[in-house]
Amino acid sequence: MPSSPSLATGPAPASPPSTVRDRRADLIVVLVALALAVWVTSGLWRDPNTRTITVNSSDQALFEWLLAFGGHAVTHGDNPLFTYLINVPDGVNLAVNTTITVYAVVFAPLTYLIGPPATFLVILTLNLLATALVWYWLLSRHLVRSRLAAGVGALFIAYSPGMVSHANAHLNWTAGWLVPLLIWRLFALRRAGHWLRDGLILGVLVAVAFSIAAEGLFFTALALGVFVAVWALHPANRVEARAALPNFLRGLGVTAVVAGVLLSYPLWLHFAGPQRFHGTGFDPVIHSEDIAAFAAFPRRSLAGEAGLGTSLAPNPTEENSFFGIPLLVLTVVCFVVLWRRADPHRRATLWALGALAVIFTVLSFGPVAKVDGRRTDLPMPFDLVGQLPVVNAALPARLALVVAPVVGLLLAYVIDQLRAAPPQHRSTELAWLLGFAVALVPLLPTPLLTDEREPIPRFITSGTWRDYVSPDGVLTPVPLTVDIYPDGQRWQAYALSHRQGEFAIPGGFFLGPGGPDGRGRIGPVPRTLSALMDQAGRTGLAPIITDGTIREVQSDLRHWRIETVVLADEVHGAKFEVDEAALLRTGTALFGEPQRVDDVWLWRIPPADR
């Protein structure tokens, strides 16, 4: 941020004794950040291949599949952004989904070496660690002089309630290390004489960010746009902003050209390619931030463990604010103290930060306000801006994630100012220490909840499936693969990452067309076979099968070109226990008596039925 010391000049060189202290502080921050990253993910480290995140095993399975598929696509010369391996016969446009292409390519050797689940865990842990370290680097080298201030600010941002919440399997949203890099390179565009190089670097970084966390990049761009506009229009900065504007715009132009060239195909797929859609498969009213959530405590925190957590989020992965009343009070106090002691240029920065926090807080409330779980009739600004292209695909609750870095910056700024000021009265120092402790200690993260996950059948791991599926043929587990039944993509990820070959599956966990009013939906439009198996697995009651039902199921088999239907002894349900016995009875009624092959029940579909 343009503040003193600025991103353009950086802090003054330290004296040798100070350099030793700074290096010691750097090491402490690295160790603390690493310890917290491992602590938060510790439940998975017990055995990455058999454990899953309790509240979001479906997204974990999806990201494991993306890692396996992306690595397989690159090493086999396939298209990493569109596939017919899932959602047979229509395929899936991965450019409108979360592809994490860069991660899939960079970590492909590791995925082949240790498997998708372990690679997923490595990336998740590194995301948290890197977010803390890159924010610490930005703060300590460009924004504040005190390493303590930089450490507190960076660690808060990296392990804020929203980041810990999204650590429940979101490899895209936990890639928070991209944000400080984007900030750094954006403000580097002010430098005279370097607009071409700086624009080129930022353009490449934008392309990388799009390929890891497109929605996060969009939010970051919006936030930086708001900050720069408010900062530049402040009377104290107008002369500086006017002088820097030509160079800044030239750099942005280069950024747009470079990013546009690198992302031309993904953007075409996103907006004009097959299987595209507009909007999102999620309800923006449901996925909006409750006003009371800002003052609540998150569940995966010391306060949450003490029983103070709430269920104000639509699900445990979307606790995007949840700062608690003590931190909200401390943030306001920090802002007031900084404002009172600030010169006009620092006030301009504070004014921009305050506006940014308020705007994104209000936008996160979604189309209509909710208070303590009760929906009101009060319309919110997002009701208007949410109709705009691209914005209509965003979940408003996630806009609250922008507020956490603002809070972290204010905490860092006030600590930096306190340490630079003459020694204060001991009671004042104790008051500040107590305030920070009361605000931050309750938010210390606790480990993600994990459970044992049903194993991948030996039928898949041994490669036996290749005896029952033709090359590029279609196999399906029952229930058919969707978000709440992720086994099909887990099996496929294993086969791809262990170089067993390819089999396609109907359905899958993805966003695609088919929702109301042309909007997207999660997974394929249900057909008779998928509905029957879902009913049996969910309720434990085998549905009544008639001749008409069998004809509809045979039509589904032909539509999907299914050769083999497989029922594992243990089926993973992401939201509930699955009744395998009811599935076996239903499959027998539809397809006849099954074969027992390795550790699965199997039905081979005659060519006439497919």
UniProtKB/TrEMBL annotation:
Which parts of the chain span the membrane according to its record? 27-45, 94-114, 120-139, 146-164, 170-188, 195-212, 218-236, 248-268, 321-338, 350-369, 389-415, 427-445
> What residue range is the signal peptide?
none
What region holds the DUF6311 domain? 80-386
* Origin: domain of life: Bacteria
For this UniProt record, give its keywords in alphabetical order, as a comma-separated list. Answer: Membrane, Transmembrane, Transmembrane helix
Pfam families, sorted: DUF6311
Mind telling me what this protein is named? DUF2079 domain-containing protein
Q: Which organism is it from?
A: Micromonospora arida
